[in-house]
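ugh finaly. both done.
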Amino acid sequence: MSRYDNDDDRCEHQRSQLNNLRCAPIRLALLRNLENRRQQATHERDARRSTANAMTATDEGGIDLPHDGMERPPLDLVLEKRSDRDPVLIVRDQVLVESSQAEVAQRLLRDQYQPSGRIIGGSVTRLVRVSTSPLSVPEAVFKLRENDVQASANHVAMLGGTDKSGATPEPTEHPLEYGRTSSHGTRVVVIDTGLDRGARERDDGWLDGVNAVDAEDIDLLDVVNAQGVVHADGLLDLGAGHGTFVAGIVRQVAPDADIRVLRALDTDGVGSEETIAEAIGRAVPLFEETDGRGVLNLSLGMETLDGQEPVALRLALDQLPPDVLVVAAAGNAASGIRLWPAASKRVIAVGSHCGDNDLTPSSWSNHGSWIDFSARGERIVSTFVAGEETPGTGAEDDPYDPDPDMFELPNPYALWTGTSFSTPQVTGRLANLLAERPDLTRAGAQRHLQDEGRFSADYGYRLSIL
C-alpha cells in the first residue's frame, strides 16, 4: 500500500487535533508550551549578546552576533490573564499607540516609557515600551485609554498548535493538473510565513510566477529547535510551509492571479501585531501599482485582551486603498470569540465547512454573526516545502507530530485542515470576480460572491469552491 493511500485517516486525525482545541486545559497547555519555548529562545539570545559584548570589550574587532537567518530576534512572549476566558499571548512589556499620541503617552507613563521610534508600515502607529513594574501592560493600556489615548497590547498571532493551523500537515499526492493561461490576473498579496525558496525548483508549474516580494519574504523553514532555541536543526519548524501552502490554494482557484507573498510570521508561525501591521503597510504600494485594486489574504489571527480590535491592525488596514478586498481566517477553536483581523468591519471573515453535499459546518470552526463566508477547510491539498517534520512526544502540550513525515522533492504537496485554508479559496474566487468584472467595487464583489453561496446563521454564506 502506498503511504498516500491513507488520506481518510490523516484527515480524520487532523479533525481530531482541531477538535481538541475546544478543551480549555489542552489549549492552555499549548499556549504555555509556546510561552516557555519563546522565553528560552529569548534567554539564549540574551546570553549570546552578553558573550558578544564581553568579547567586544576585550577584542578591539569584536564579533558579529548571529541571528541564524532571522532579521528579527525571537519574540519574548508572555501569557496575560483575562477575567472570563483563556489567557492570550502578548509581547512582553510592549504597548502600541498612535504616533500622534506618543507624547501624551510618554507623559502619562513617565518612567515606564521607552519609545522605539518605529513607524509601522508607513502608518500612524508607534511602538511604546513599558516596564512590568510598577505597571503591567493591561494597567498601562487602561491608563492610556482613560486619558483618550488609543492603545493596545502588542498581541500575537500564532499558527502552530493553537489558533490557525492546529493540525500538522500530512504528505499526499496532488490530484489536479496545472492550468494557468495568463499572468495578467488580479493582484493578490498573501501575508504569512513567506514563500519557499525552493518554489522555483518545482517542475509542476503550480508556483510559477508566485513571487516573494523581497529576500526577507522567503520562508526560512528551520530557525528554531523543538525547545524554542534559535538554532537550525535540519527539521521543519511548526509554521514552515504555511505561506507556500496558502499561495498554492490561491493559484488553484485563480490560476491567472498575480500572487505576491510577504512574510510577517516566523518559522514557528508566530507574529506580533506590530510585524503584521508592518507587512500590511508594505502591501500598500503593491496595490497602488494596480490602481488600488486586488485582494489581501490573511490566514492568521489573534484574540485580544479586551475583545476590541487591535489598534495597529486597524490603522494599518485603514492605509489600504479603499477598493482592496481583505480576507482573513476566522480561527479553529470552535468558539464565538472574535478573532482579529477577521472580525474587523473592513475584513471578510472566513470559516470552514466539511465539503460534503450539504456543506455541514466544521465542528472545530469558529462561528458567529461576524463570519461572512465559509468554504471547505478539510482535506485541502496544496503546494508545500521539502523537509522532515520535527518529531513530537504525543503529549497534549506538544504541538509537534509524534509520527513525523518527510516531504520530498521535487514537488512536495501536503494535506492540511483549517480556516487558514478555506480563506485563500475565497480570496481566489474574489480575484476571479475582479478579473472578470473590472467595474466591480469592493462591496459589489462581495455581493456577487454572496449570490454564489447559501446563507447559514453563524457561518455566513457557504461556498463550494474546491
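ok and the 2nd:
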Amino acid sequence: MDSGYPNRSKSGSIVAMLAGLWFMASPWVYGSFQMEEAWNNRIVGLLITILAIVRLSTDERKTRWISGVNCLLAIWVVISPWVFQYSGNTDRVINSLCVGVILFVGAMISAVSAHKGPKPKMT
C-alpha cells in the first residue's frame, strides 16, 4: 500500500528548487545585482537548486541528508541580511525571510516525508 510519502517528499523538493531559483534571480528583481552581496544570492540559490534537483532525481532514502543541508541553508538565507548589512532594505529583508522560511518548510516536509521502505513484519 502506498503511503503517499514519496509524493510529499517530491513536493518539498520542488518547493526547495523553486525557492533556490527565486533567491538566485532576486538580485535582478530588486535592482541589487551589482552590489557586493548579490553573489550570496546567486551562489546560495544555485546550491539550493542543485541540491533539490539531485534530491528529485535520485532515491529519496539515499539523499535524505540533502534536506538537512537545505534547512541549514534556509537559516543562512534568513540571517544573511544582517551578515551582509543590508537589513535597512526592507524589500530585500522580507525577501530573504520569506525564502528562508519557505525553504525551511519545504526541506522539512521533504525530510520527514521520505519513504523509509516497508516496515519489517513482526512474527
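summary for the 2nd one i guess: The chain has one domain: 5-113.
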